[in-house]
Amino acid sequence: MRALVKETAAPGFKLKEVPEPTIRDDEVLIRVRRAGVCGTDVHIYDWDAWAQGRCKPPFVVGHEFAGEVAQVGRLVTDVHIGDRVTAEGHIVDGRCLLCRTGNSHVCPHTRIIGVDRDGCFADYIAMPATNVWHLDDNISFDIGGIHDPMGNAFHTALTAEIPGATVLITGCGPIGLFAVGICKAAGASRIIASDVNETRLALARRMGAHDVVHPNEAAAAVSRATDGLGVDVVLEMSGVPSAIHQAFELVRVGGRVQMLGIPSKPIEVNLASEVIFKGITIYGVVGRRMYDTWHQVTRFLRSGMFDPTPVITHRFPLEAADEAINAIKTGAAGKVIFEIA
Ligand code: NAD
Ligand code: ZN
Questions:
Q1: Which CATH number fits domain 151-284: 1.10.357.10, 3.40.50.720, 3.40.50.150, 1.20.58.100?
Q2: Quick one: which of 3, 17, 18, 213 has the fewest CB in 10 Å?
Q3: Using CA atoms, how far apart are residues 138 and 133, in angstroms rounded to an integer?
Q4: For residues 297 and 20, what is the distance between their CA atoms, to the nearest angstrom?
Q5: Domain limits of the chain?
Q6: Which amino acids are annotated catalytic?
Q7: Residue 284 CA: which ligand 1 atom is closest?
Q8: Which residues of 156-186 are buried (b: 16+ CB within 10 A; e: fewer)?
């Protein structure tokens, strides 16, 4: 089969023929139809310091996908050949304290497809049956293939109290854009979205933001929308230090900051003035809650209240991996996907 492989400890991916994965008795083989390209793939492509510390080439890249089940292991009872599915890409041990207390999303033994084991930028992927998530018949493979980043946005937004809330979303990358639509569907009374990128601000407007602003104008927009109080909730979705400080500055006293964006290095925070004396709550987001977040994704899609379609702006075949990575790097794209079959 064809696969995009991180072949050596150096920048780039290589499209090559590799053997089809073999499955264990508790796994299924999935024919990949669509796959989402994400910032993590760019880190691995560039072979930056994070990727060098984490990944061990050679491996097949990619962790967001949807497709059809092609084969099932002997012990699998609830997934069948031909099922239309996506999957949770974090494979957890299911046995540790976290897993056994409903917190698998922070299982310390998590292995991620396309990072720690072979991923989905390929014709086929093997997945544990427990990680498989069925798609409704009317959900396209395009939308199925982006359940992972949509799930990040659902997790970030819906672990805060959104109905009636004033919300600031800092960063309108794909996940921030999904979050705009989710907050709208969940009944936020005011959604202010900030980014430095005009293309992405236009997409945020399309997804339902009431105000779309450059970070320099965020303070004024928040003040206008909240009678000078600050927003009830900030979803920090950029990982940029100045945006993180802005999150603490523009949340109201007693408010909540949901932190999804990952800063590339440690940042200094004045805990006394930015956090403690404001009495705020900070929530760190890791992946998707298993599987409450996945139920939320399916229910919101099923309701028709949330439509992520406008966020997908670019499609490429696996052969055009360099162009796909480049579309992300230039900031020209919303969500980029591979059309595989
Ligand atoms: P992304 O990284 O492209 O989005 C970040 C956006 O922030 C960009 O559109 C950028 O223009 C914007 N930005 C830059 N400076 C800004 C500023 N000062 N104020 C507001 N916005 C600013 O794409 P993404 O895939 O949506 O990822 C968002 C973040 O979430 C990244 O940091 C990513 O690493 C992180 N992430 C975290 C998890 C998790 O589980 N915690 C999972 C996936 C991604
Ligand atoms: Zn565990």
A1: 3.40.50.720
A2: 17
A3: 15
A4: 30
A5: 2-146+308-339, 151-284
A6: 40, 43
A7: 41
A8: bbbebebeebbbbbbbbbbbbbbbbbbbbbb
Q: Which atom of ligand 1 sits closest to the CA of residue 286?
A: 40
Cα(283) to centroid(ligand 2), Å: 20
Give the mean pLDDT of 213-229.
98
Q: Helix or strand or coil: residue 79?
A: coil
Tracing tokens 């974090």 back to the chain, one arrives at 90
From the CA of 215, give the closest atom in ligand 1. Answer: 19
What mean pLDDT, rounded, does the chain reach? Answer: 98
pLDDT value at residue 253:
98
What separation in Å is there between the alpha carbon of 216 and the centre of ligand 1? 17
Question: Atom 36, ligand 1: which residue's CA is nearest?
Answer: 261
Confidence band of 280 (pLDDT split at 50, 70, 90): very high
Give the residue, out of 195, 325, 337, with the most ligand 1 atoms within 8 A of its beta carbon, to mutate for a pocket test.
195
The domain 2-146+308-339 is classified under which CATH number: 3.90.180.10, 3.40.50.740, 3.40.50.720, 3.40.109.10?
A: 3.90.180.10
Q: Is the Cβ atom of 260 under 6 angstroms away from ligand 1?
A: yes
List pLDDT tens digits, range 242-270. 999 999 999 999 999 999 999 999 999 99
How much is the pLDDT for 42? 98
